[in-house]
Specification:
The protein is an alpha/beta fold. Helix content is 39%, strand content 20%. The chain contains 12 helices and 12 strands. A 10-stranded mixed sheet has the order 2-1-3-12-11-4-5-10-8-9, sandwiched between helices. Strand 1, helix 1 and strand 2 form a beta-alpha-beta unit. The longest helix is centred in the first third of the chain and has 19 residues. It is globular and about 60 Å long. The protein starts with a strand and ends with a helix.
C-alpha cells in the first residue's frame, strides 16, 4: 500500500526529529510491505526566510494533496521581533484551519522506566498513568473577535470566547468515541460556574452522554482539574475540553510525565488526513547539535499509522520499540538521571529504536 506524507520539518530541531521519524517509517514500510512517500514543504521561520510568509500557498496545497502530514516544530529567536501576523507560530493556526483540523489528541503517558523523571512523588506515580486529552482546536478564544479600544481606565485589549452547538457536539462525539476505545471513562472540563460558553458546553456534553451509556461521564471545573492532574493523574482516562483550557492542561500533563520530549499529538478533522507533531518546541539552543529527543516525533508517526492509515499493528510495533529502548536504559540528554549515566544522541536513539523494530 502506498501512502503520501507531507513533511513540514520547520525550524530548530524540527529537521532532525522529523528525519528520525522518516527513518522509522521507512523501516516499518520494509517490515510490513508499505510504501511511504515523503514530500517536504516549508513552514514557519524557514518559510519566512525563503518566501516572506510563514505558510506559503504551496505548503497548504501540498498538505491537502497528501494522505497525512508530519510536522517538526516552528519558531525561534531569529523571528521573535516580527509582527504577530507573520510570526512562524501563525503558520500552526493557519495549517490547522486549512486542513479543517478541529480535534487535538494529546496522550500523556508515564513510562514505568521513567518514573524517576516525573516531578510527582513516587507514591503518586507508582502505578504510572496513561491519559488522553481531547482538545477542541479551531474555536474559542483563540479564534474569537479581538482588538483594542479606549476603556474606563484608558487603553484596553479584549479577546472574545464563543462556541457554537456544532463545534461542541463534534468535539464531544470524538471524545466519547475515544473513551469507548479505551477504559470508557470521560471527564469534561469547563468553567461553568463563571463562563456562559462553559454552561452551553456542559449542557451539550450531558446531552451527548445519553448516547453513550457505557461511558462513565463526569464534569470538572478547570481549576480543580489543574490540581487533580498533579494530585492523582491516575484517576483520568480521557479528558475533553475547550481550546484554551486544553492548551494549558495538556502542557501540564506533559510535564508530569518527566519530559516534554516524550509526547506526541494528532490533529484531526472529518477526513483521515491528520497533522501529527511532537508537543515540544523548536529548541533553538540545541538545534543542529544532534542532542534532541526524537521519541515524541517517532510516536507522532505511530499515531499517524493508527489514526490516519488504520495500521494498528504497525503503530504498536513502533510503540513497543520505544518501550524496549527505554527499558534497556537508553536516554537522550533531557532524560538523563533516569537511566544510563551518559546521554545518547538523537541519531543514536533513532538507531536503537530501529534495532527494536
Amino acid at each position: 500500500m502506498k501512502y503520501n506524507i507531507a513533511l513540514l520539518r520547520g525550524d530548530g530541531i524540527g529537521p532532525e526529529i522529523v528525519d528520525s521519524a522518516v527513518l522509522v517509517l521507512e523501516k516499518i514500510g520494509k517490515k510490513f510491505g508499505h510504501d511511504f512517500c515523503f514530500t517536504p514543504y516549508l513552514i514557519g521561520g524557514c518559510a519566512i526566510d525563503k518566501t516572506g510568509e510563514p505558510l506559503p500557498a504551496e505548503t497548504i496545497d501540498g498538505c491537502l494533496a497528501s494522505d497525512s502530514v508530519l510536522l517538526g516544530a516552528v519558531g525561534g529567536p531569529k523571528w521573535d521581533n516580527l509582527s504577530g501576523d507573520i510570526r512562524p507560530e501563525k503558520a500552526l493556526l493557519g495549517i490547522r484551519a486549512a486542513l479543517g483540523l478541529f480535534t487535538n489528541l494529546r496522550p500523556a503517558k508515564l513510562y514505568s522506566s521513567l518514573k524517576e523523571a516525573s516531578p510527582l512523588r513516587e507514591d503518586i506515580v507508582k502505578e504510572g498513568f496513561d491519559l488522553m486529552i481531547v482538545r477542541e482546536l479551531t474555536g474559542g478564544i483563540y479564534f474569537g473577535e479581538r482588538g483594542r479600544r479606549e476603556g474606563k481606565y484608558g487603553a484596553e485589549a479584549y479577546d472574545t470566547e464563543a462556541y457554537s452547538r456544532m463545534e461542541i457536539e463534534r468535539i464531544g462525539r470524538v471524545a466519547f468515541e475515544t473513551a469507548m476505545k479505551r477504559k470508557k471513562r470521560l471527564v469534561s472540563i469547563d468553567k461553568a460556574n463563571v463562563l456562559e460558553t462553559s454552561r452551553l458546553w456542559r449542557e451539550i456534553m450531558h446531552e451527548l452522554s445519553a448516547d453513550y451509556p457505557e461511558v462513565e461521564y463526569s464534569d470538572m471545573l478547570v481549576d480543580n482539574a489543574a490540581m487533580q492532574l498533579v494530585k492523582n493523574p491516575c484517576q483520568f482516562d480521557v479528558i475533553v475540553t475547550s481550546n484554551m483550557f486544553g492548551d494549558i492542561l495538556s502542557d501540564e500533563a506533559s510535564q508530569i510525565t518527566g519530559s516534554i520530549g516524550m509526547l506526541a499529538s494528532a490533529s484531526l478533522g472529518n477526513t483521515k488526513r491528520g497533522l501529527y507533531e511532537p508537543i515540544h518546541g523548536s529548541a533553538p539552543d540545541i538545534a543542529g547539535q544532534n542532542k534532541a529527543n526524537p521519541i515524541a516525533t517517532v510516536l507522532s508517526a505511530a499515531m499517524m499509522l493508527r489514526y490516519s492509515f488504520d495500521l494498528k499493528e504497525e503503530a504498536d510495533c513502533i510503540e513497543k520499540a520505544v518501550d524496549a529502548v527505554l527499558e534497556n536504559g537508553f536516554r537522550t540528554a533531557d532524560l538523563i538521571g533516569t537511566g544510563s549515566a551518559e546521554a545518547v544522541s538523537c541519531s543514536e536513539m533513532t538507531e536503537k529504536i530501529l534495532e527494536m523494530i
